[in-house]
Specification:
Layout: H1 3-18, H2 23-30, H3 36-44, H4 53-60, H5 66-75, H6 78-82, H7 90-104
Helix pairs in contact: 1-3, 2-4, 3-5, 5-7
């Protein structure tokens, strides 16, 4: 991939990470992404304090591939799920369980 093309993809992802007013706008644009490398870059730099709605939108994108899903699992602390640690976060548990089942199917 040439440097200009890579720069443009990173620029698009940065705009989604840092310049959006609401999660709804980010989710809408994520569902329209047609490039897995932009999705990967976006998830790599995502601030997980912003919740799980946006990662779920990325997972629901048809261009989300296995590497992106595994990155989301890792970044969402899937290791705690695998180690069966006692974490009292029902929303996270539902998200990570669903993702784990999806990865195993």
């Amino acid at each position: 991939m040439n440097k200009v093309c890579e720069f443009e993809k990173n620029k698009k992802a940065n705009n989604l990470l840092f310049n959006e007013d609401s999660p709804e706008e980010v989710i809408q644009k994520r569902t329209q992404a047609k490039d897995s490398s932009v999705l990967y870059y976006f998830i790599w730099h995502y601030n997980w304090d912003n919740g799980l709605e946006i990662p779920q939108a990325v997972l629901d994108n048809q261009y989300c591939d296995l590497s992106i899903a595994l990155l989301i699992f890792f970044r969402a602390d899937g290791l705690s799920f695998l180690l069966k640690e006692d974490i009292d976060l029902p929303h996270w548990y539902k998200f990570i369980t669903s993702l784990f089942e999806r990865l195993n199917s």
